Fold this protein.
Amino acid sequence: MADPKGFLTTPREGARRRPVNERLRDWNEVYPGDGIGGALLPIITKQAGRCMDCGIPFCHQGCPLGNLIPEWNDLVWRDDWRAAIERLHATNNFPEFTGRLCPAPCETACVLAINEATSGGAVTIKNVEVSIIDRAWDQGWVTPQPPEWLTGSRIAVVGSGPAGLAAAQQLTRSGHTVAVYERADKIGGLLRYGIPEFKMEKRLVDRRLDQMAREGTIFRAGVNVGVDVTGADLKARYDAVVLAVGSTIPRDLPMSGRELVGIHQAMEYLPQANRVAHGVEVPEQITATGKHVVIIGGGDTGADCLGTAHRQGAASVVQLEIMPQPTDDRPAHQPWPTYPMVFRVSSAHEEGGERKYAVSTQEFLGDESGHVRALKLVEVAFNNGRFEPVPGTEEEIPADLVLLAMGFVGPERDGLLEQLGVELDERGNIKRDGSFATSAPGVFVAGDAGRGQSLIVWAIAEGRACAAGVDGWLRDGETALPAPIRPTERPLTV
Ligand SMILES: Cc1cc2nc3c(=O)[nH]c(=O)nc-3n(C[C@H](O)[C@H](O)[C@H](O)COP(=O)(O)OP(=O)(O)OC[C@H]3O[C@@H](n4cnc5c(N)ncnc54)[C@H](O)[C@@H]3O)c2cc1C
Ligand code: SF4
């Protein structure tokens, strides 16, 4: 156990972010210096010492990767960072991604979160995680782990987000020859073109890809599989195929005025901004500069649009959410150790903008040139199992740029999926069995494409578990690879 009295003597504390007026002038991570790992160094040992090494560590319950949280908390407390990174990498291929981006269901499941008033709150698990991996990179402890011998089997991974990358790393390390195909010009999936630089700098993705390339993973960016290479080509060239194509069909808002100029899906807007942040010129870029921006959708994607719009110099930004404003404290019907709906303030929310809850858009209003100029909103109340407009609450808000951030409904069905003949489940995701195999022999699926829109931590867990399925299939049922989750496993909710 770390410090037996740690949580009694040390209050929960996180890293300080850079001042808002400073960070809005650049795209870098919102933490000072080299990023969050460095910012945490002065405080993290004592924070790790707050862990009680519980007899039943409920933090494990929250983490689909099965991260060995009390073990590395203890190792950090004892200043044995080298052992800590070994324990962390034992369950997580990419802790620098989860340590920055995960909503940390481990923390809401931490035993110290049962009674925050007396315990001071959960252990800052995610911060300990990111400190361990950032330090390990700094010290040169993260090195390529190429296999000792090759099996001769060839595997294609289609899609280079966290699920595809985790599957590829596991399979390469176990001796298979793995090629990762990506239709975008660069590898990384949503890590590269969805998540903005201020949440995670892309040099961190590049650094990990370099490690993977040195281990032997082959990367083929700019190849749209299903168009440039057919499903039949893949099956002819490879012994197994992993579909890690994500959940890329965005939910739309088909209503009066949707055709007006200036209304875009978040994933039309964010990738362009990410490219520009890296000095790439984007002709006719969708930009928030000088505009009244309305973001429809209150989740992570909406917050990413918010931070991006602020950095582009928007005149105003309003974020709309149909659900009522959550409470500051855990609601009674979402008890520990579930992941509760509480009012969260991301770094982007700290930077400004207005959040409107319990509202629904009734209509997009345009000007004479066919450009959006306003949104007609109404307050809603949840009655009889649906949201109903509250009469007399209609209002108009100005909008020159509307960003739709309402989630995703599944993978694209035509093209590759049709060519491979994989069946879909009742929700439109790719159907799989207990070992992540699809209905097409030798074709497997990992990540959002099979699970539906989810989180990076689940995508990595899916990639690892799918790799075990593929490896077992290639080796007549024998595999030494870990499978942290089953395809049907879901977060603990009520
Ligand atoms: C804007 C945004 C912000 C997010 N922020 C967070 C966050 O902060 N924390 C968090 O935990 N989760 C976040 N998420 C969710 C998280 O990013 C996803 O759950 C995760 O990336 C899914 O991983 P994946 O590997 O399954 O798919 P993806 O990351 O979506 O990658 C799929 C890749 O497949 C490629 N592809 C698709 N079809 C083909 C084809 N035919 N040929 C070649 N390539 C193809 C796509 O181009 C894409 O690059 C966010 C999502 C979005 C949209
Ligand atoms: S539940 Fe919290 S206090 Fe207990 S072992 Fe996990 S991190 Fe430590």
Observations:
- The longest strand covers residues 372-383.
- The pocket of iron/sulfur cluster (ligand 2) is lined by residues 51-54, 57-59, 69-70, 73, 110-112, 123, 125 (CB under 6 Å).
- The mean pLDDT is 96.
